[in-house]
Specification:
The structure holds three protein chains of three kinds. By secondary structure, chain A is mainly alpha-helical. Chain A has helices spanning 7-27, 30-55, 63-81, 85-107, 113-132, 170-193, 195-205, 207-212, 217-243, 253-266, 272-289, 296-310, 315-326, and strands spanning 140-141, 144-145. In chain A, 69% of the residues lie in helices and 1% in strands. Chain A has a two-stranded antiparallel sheet. Chain B folds into two domains: 2-149 and 209-306, Rossmann fold; 150-203, Rossmann fold, CATH 3.40.50. Classes of the chains: A mainly alpha, B alpha/beta, C mainly alpha.
Chain lengths: 343, 313, 288
C-alpha cells in the first residue's frame, strides 16, 4: 500500500492554523500579535524536538544548541550583510550542518540512546560557556561584536527579500512566523508520510529489524537529526527577530529543559502536541510572572510533577483518545504516531 | 533577615501611606493613576538582587503617593517578575509598552537584561531608567542610568587600597563584560598609583551583588522630572531631566548629567565594621567620566548604543 | 617543587569535590538507573540544614555530618514514596518529575527563607606549602571524600544490606525470587543516596555561597561524572572524578576556570564516544 498522508487530520489542523493566522489580528491589538510571535517561534522549536524525539527516537537534550546557533548566525550575518535574505537561509543551513556533523560523531559511533542525551546536553553547555566569554572588542565577526554575557542588542529585523530599506513591522513579522509554522508543520507531515518517514519510524521501533531489512539506521538518524537542527535554527532566527536581541542564555540548560517539557506536556509522538505544549507552557510562565503572590518556581514545579503523575502521555493523545471514542466509527490516521518506545 | 526587613518596609509603607494620605486619598482616587512599570527578577539566581530593588521601588512609590501623588494623580506600580530569564524581559517589556502603556519603566538588573529591553523601549518610545551599577558606556537619549560606573568608584577604591595594603595587586573578577571592564580600570588605576599588577584572573560567572538605593533614587529623579515638566509625556520629561535635575537621597545629592544621561553622585569609601559602614572618606559629585569619554548626547542626540570603553593605561 | 605540590594538592581537592558531589547521584543511578534531576536541590537542602542549625548555635561538624544527611534522607524518603515510586522503569518521566521537584524545592526554600541566608566561614584556616598558601579545609574535604568512598565500599562488601543491594542491582527478578523485595531496596537506596547528597551539601557550605539556586551550578558536572563513570558505583564515580577533576584543575591552572570547565566537558564528550558504557563498562567491570 503506497504511503499517503492522513488527509482528514491534516486538513483540519491546517484549517485551524490558517484561521488563527488571519483571525488573530482581527481580535487582538499589536501587543497580542507581538506576544503570539514569540509563542510561535517556540512552537517551531518544539516541533523540531517533537520530530526528532517522537518520531526519530533521538532523545536530544540540546536542541537549544541549534536554536542559539541559528539566532547568533542570523544576528552576525545580518549585521555584516545588511540585507536579511541570505542571513535567513544561513540561520537554517548552518545549524543543520552542525547537527549533521554532531550526528555523524554520535550515530556513526554507535552511541546508545541515553548517551545521546548526555552528549547533546554537554554540547549545549560548552556553547553556553564559550558564548559567555566573548565580551570585549576582540570578539567580533566582521561588524558584529559578540558581546559575551551582555549579548547582542538592536539586531536588524528581516526585510522584504532583496530590499534592506523596508524592514518588516511587527504585524508583518507575525504573518511571516505563522506562515513558516504552517509550512514546517506541513513539510514534516509530508516527510513522515513518505517512505523516508516510514523507515525512520521503523528504526525507532526496532533498529535491528530495520537493519536486517537493509536500511542503514545511522544515515537515517543523521538526516533526521540534521533536519531537526535546521528547524531549530529557523526558530532561533524568528526568536531573534521578535526580540531584536540575543544573548548566551539561549544555550542555557533551562532552555533545553523547557523544550522537552513542551513536547512532553503536549504529547510525544504527535506533531500538533509540541505546538500546543509550547504555547500553553509559555503562556503559563508569562501569567506566573505577572503575579507576585506565589513564587514562580513553586507553581511551575507543582504543575510539572502533577502532569507527570496524572497525564504522562501528554495532552494531545488524551484528547485524541477522547475524540476517537466519540467518533468511534471512523478508522483514523495512517500517520505513524503510535506509542513511542520510551526507555 | 531579609524576610523581616521586607515585612517591616511593607508595614512601614502601609502605615505611612494611611496616616499621611488620609486627607489626600479622596482627591487622588478621583484622578486617573499614572502607570509606572517595573521589570525585576524576583526568583531564580538573580532574584537575590531583584527582591531588595523591588522593596525599594515600592517604598519610593508609597512615599510619592503619600505626598499626594504626582501632578495630583496616584502612582500605580505594575511589576513583572522576569524570573532571571532574558526572554521574559523582552516579553514583559513589550507588554509594558504596548498593553499597559506605562509612562516610565524602572528595571533591568544585569547588563544583558538592560540590552535586551533598551531597543524595545527605544522603538516604542517609552522612557527607561536603569538603576544598577554597571560597566558604563550606554549612550542613548531614551534611557537614564543612575547606577555608578567604574570611574566613579574604582578610581577612589584603588588608591586607598594601594595606600593601606601595599603596591602588589592581584585582581580577581567574574568572566563577563562587567568583570572584565572593571578589571581593566583597576589595572589602570593600580599602575597610575605606582603599584604593580601581579596577575589578573577571571572566574566563571555566578551571582553578583547590586544595590537597591539607586532604584529608590532613580524613581525619585523621574518624579522630579515629571514635576518640572508638568507632564508624564516622554520627551518633555527627558528635556526636564536634562536640565540637570537633582534629588537628595540616602547617599546625598544625585544629579543628572545631560551629555551622558548618567548621574553625578557622591562616592564614599567605607569599611564594614560591626554590621555598619564606617565612612573613611567622601568624594562628592563624582562625574561619570568613563562614559563621558565616549558619549555626548548634547552633540549627537540620536546615538543609541552601548560603547565598549577602551581603557588606556 | 612546592608549585608541583600545590598543584597536586589542588587536583586532589578538585577530585574530592567531584566525588562528594556525585556519589549520591551515582548510588541512585547505579541501583535504579534513574536520573534524579533534583540532585542539586538535595545538595542545597543539605547546605541549608547545615547553615540554619549552625547559625542557631549547633556545632558546625555535627550539623554537616549528622543533621544534614538525616534531614535530606528524610526528604528523600518522602520523595520516593510520593513520586518516584510510581515511575520506576520510566526514565524520561522520572527526569521530568525530578525536574519539577527541583523547581518546587527552590520555590519553597525561597518562600520560607528569602533569597539569601548568612553563610559559614571555612574553619581550620590555612597552611603553607613552600611559598604558597593552601586551605586546611581542603584537607578535611579530601579526607571526607575518601571516608565516604570507603564507607560505601565497606557497606556493599561486608554488610548484609550491601549484599542484597548488589544482588538487586544485578538481577532484580532473581533477587525477588529469593525473597528480597526490590521496591523496599529501591526505597532504601534512594534514601541513602539522598543522605549522601545532603552530607555533601553540608561539607560544601564553607566553600560555596548558600542560596536557593546554588544547586544548578553542580548538576551538570555531577551528571556527567556519573554517566562517564559507568555502572559500578564506587570505581566508576571514583575514576571519573579523578579523570575529570585532574583535567579541570590542570587546564584551569594554565588558563582560566572557564576553559577548565569547557575542557572537562569536552573530555567527557570524547570519553563517552570512546567508551559508550562509561569507564566501568569496559574496565573494572565486576567491581563495586
Amino acid at each position: 500500500m503506497k504511503p499517503r498522508p492522513a488527509w482528514p487530520g491534516l486538513c483540519a489542523v491546517l484549517a485551524a492554523m490558517l484561521v488563527v493566522m488571519f483571525g488573530l489580528p482581527l481580535v487582538t491589538g499589536l501587543f497580542g500579535l507581538v506576544q503570539a510571535t514569540v509563542f510561535i517561534a517556540m512552537a517551531v522549536l518544539a516541533l523540531s524536538q517533537g520530530f526528532i524525539w517522537g518520531y526519530g527516537g533521538i532523545m536530544s537534550f540540546g536542541q537549544s544548541a541549534f536554536f542559539g546557533l541559528g539566532g547568533y548566525t542570523y544576528a552576525v550575518a545580518v549585521m555584516n550583510m545588511g540585507d536579511s535574505t541570505i542571513p535567513f537561509f544561513l540561520s537554517i543551513l548552518l545549524p543543520a550542518a552542525f547537527a549533521a556533523l554532531l550526528g555523524y560523531f554520535m550515530f556513526y559511533g554507535r552511541i546508545s540512546d541515553a548517551y545521546v542525551g548526555v552528549i547533546t546536553l554537554t554540547v549545549t553547555v560548552i556553547l553556553f560557556n564559550v558564548a559567555n566569554s566573548t565580551a570585549g572588542d576582540v570578539y567580533h565577526i566582521g561588524n558584529a561584536p559578540l558581546g559575551g554575557f551582555n549579548g547582542m542588542p538592536s539586531i536588524p529585523p528581516l526585510n522584504m527579500p532583496g530590499d534592506p530599506s523596508s524592514p518588516l513591522d511587527p504585524q508583518q513579522l507575525y504573518y511571516v512566523c505563522m506562515g513558516l509554522l504552517v509550512l514546517v508543520y506541513l513539510m514534516l507531515h509530508l516527510i513522515l508520510a513518505s517512505k523516508f518517514g516510514r523507515v525512520v519510524v521503523a528504526i525507532r521501533e526496532n533498529e535491528t529489524r530495520a537493519m536486517l531489512l537493509g536500511y542503514d539506521p545511522r544515515l537515517y538518524k543523521l538526516l533526521v537529526f540534521a533536519i531537526g537542527g535546521g528547524i531549530a535554527g529557523l526558530a532561533g532566527c524568528l526568536f531573534t527577530n521578535w526580540g531584536g536581541f540575543i544573548s548566551p542564555t539561549v544555550f542555557g540548560l533551562s532552555q533545553s529543559a523547557q523544550i522537552i517539557i513542551f513536547v512532553l506536556v503536549g504529547g510525544l509522538g504527535t506533531l500538533v502536541g509540541p505546538i500546543l505544549g509550547a504555547v500553553a507552557i509559555e503562556y503559563l510562565i508569562t501569567v506566573i510572572g505577572s503575579q507576585q503572590t506565589f513564587n514562580a518556581d513553586l507553581i511551575l514545579g507543582v504543575v510539572l510533577v502533577a502532569f507527570v503523575l496524572l497525564v504522562p502521555q501528554g495532552v494531545v493523545p488524551v484528547l485524541r483518545g477522547v475524540t476517537l471514542r466519540v467518533f468511534s466509527q471512523r478508522r483514523v490516521a495512517a500517520l505513524p504516531e503510535a506509542k513511542p518506545v520510551r526507555p | 533577615m531579609v524576610r523581616n526587613r521586607r515585612e517591616i518596609l511593607q508595614s512601614a509603607a502601609a502605615v505611612a501611606t494611611t496616616v499621611l494620605a488620609a486627607p489626600f486619598i479622596r482627591r487622588a482616587e478621583a484622578a486617573e493613576p499614572i502607570k509606572v512599570g517595573s521589570l525585576l527578577d524576583l526568583s531564580g539566581p538573580i532574584g537575590t538582587s531583584g527582591q531588595p530593588m523591588f522593596d525599594a521601588i515600592q517604598l519610593a512609590v508609597a512615599e510619592v503617593n503619600a505626598a499626594g501623588g504626582l501632578l495630583g494623580r496616584p502612582i500605580e506600580l505594575i511589576n513583572y517578575n522576569t524570573q532571571s530569564t532574558i526572554q521574559l524581559y523582552s516579553q514583559y517589556a513589550q507588554q509594558l509598552a504596548l498593553k499597559d502603556r506605562v509612562a516610565v519603566v524602572h528595571g533591568g538588573i544585569t547588563s544583558a537584561s538592560r540590552e535586551a529591553i533598551r531597543p524595545v523601549f527605544d522603538r516604542y518610545r517609552i522612557l527607561y531608567f536603569y538603576n544598577v551599577l554597571y560597566e558604563g558606556g550606554v549612550c542613548d537619549r531614551d534611557i537614564f542610568c543612575t547606577g555608578t560606573t567604574p570611574a566613579q568608584t574604582v578610581n577612589k577604591l584603588v588608591p586607598y587600597a594601594l595606600k593601606t595594603w601595599g603596591k602588589k595587586v592581584y585582581i580577581l573578577a567574574a568572566d563577563y563584560n562587567y568583570g572584565q571592564i572593571t578589571a581593566k580600570w583597576m589595572t589602570k588605576y593600580t599602575r597610575d598609583g605606582g603599584g604593580t599588577v601581579q596577575a589578573v584572573d577571571f572566574f566563571p560567572l555566578d551571582v553578583t551583588g547590586f544595590t537597591a538605593a539607586a532604584t529608590y533614587e532613580g524613581f525619585h529623579l523621574w518624579a522630579e522630572g515629571v514635576k518640572k515638566a508638568n507632564s508624564i509625556e516622554r520627551m518633555p520629561v527627558i528635556k526636564a531631566l536634562e536640565t540637570g535635575l537633582s534629588f537628595d537621597g540616602p547617599s546625598g545629592k544625585v544629579t543628572i548629567d545631560h551629555a551622558t544621561h548618567h548621574v553625578i553622585r557622591n562616592a564614599y569609601l567605607g569599611k564594614a565594621v560591626d554590621k555598619t559602614w564606617d565612612v573613611i572618606a567622601s568624594y562628592p559629585n563624582q562625574p561619570p567620566s568613563d562614559t563621558a569619554a565616549v558619549c555626548n548626547l548634547i552633540k549627537a542626540p540620536n546615538t543609541d548604543k552601548q560603547f565598549v570603553i577602551d581603557v588606556k593605561s | 617543587m612546592a608549585l608541583a605540590a600545590l598543584i597536586g594538592f589542588n587536583v586532589l581537592n578538585s577530585i574530592a569535590a567531584l566525588v562528594l558531589l556525585s556519589i549520591g547521584l551515582g548510588v541512585i543511578f547505579g541501583m535504579m538507573k534513574i536520573i534524579n534531576l533534583a540532585h542539586g536541590e538535595f545538595l542545597m537542602l543539605g547546605a541549608y540544614a547545615t547553615v540554619i542549625t549552625t547559625n542557631a548555635g549547633l556545632n558546625l561538624f555535627f550539623a554537616m555530618l549528622v543533621v544534614a544527611p538525616l534531614f535530606v534522607g528524610a526528604v528523600g524518603l518522602i520523595v520516593e514514596r510520593g513520586i518516584i515510586r510510581f515511575l520506576y522503569g520510566r526514565m524520561i518521566d522520572t527526569m521530568l518529575a525530578t525536574w519539577g521537584l527541583s523547581l518546587f524545592l527552590v520555590g519553597i526554600i525561597t518562600t520560607i527563607f528569602g533569597t539569601t541566608v548568612k553563610g559559614v566561614a571555612a574553619p581550620f584556616g590555612g597552611f603553607a606549602i613552600g611559598r604558597y598558601q593552601a586551605s586546611a579545609y581542603s584537607v578535611f574535604m579530601i579526607v571526607m571524600a575518601a571516608a565516604v568512598l570507603l564507607g560505601i565500599w565497606a557497606t556493599l562488601r561486608f554488610t548484609r544490606f550491601g549484599l542484597i543491594a548488589r544482588a538487586t542491582m544485578q538481577n532484580p527478578d532473581m533477587a525477588a525470587a529469593l525473597g528480597v523485595s526490590p521496591p523496599r531496596i529501591y526505597m532504601a537506596t534512594f534514601v541513602l543516596g539522598a543522605a549522601l547528597t545532603g552530607l555533601a551539601g553540608g561539607v560544601l557550605v564553607p566553600v560555596s555561597g548558600v542560596a536557593p539556586t546554588m544547586g544548578a551550578a553542580y548538576i551538570a558536572r555531577a551528571f556527567i561524572t556519573v554517566i562517564g563513570g559507568g555502572a559500578a558505583i564506587i570505581t566508576g564515580s571514583g575514576l571519573a572524578s579523578a579523570l575529570f577533576g585532574f583535567i579541570d584543575q590542570v587546564v584551569t591552572f594554565q588558563t582560566t576556570p572557564v576553559f577548565g570547565e569547557v575542557a572537562l566537558l569536552i573530555s567527557a564528550l570524547v570519553m563517552i564516544r570512546i567508551l559508550p558504557q562509561g569507564i566501568t563498562g569496559r574496565f573494572f567491570r565486576r567491581s563495586l
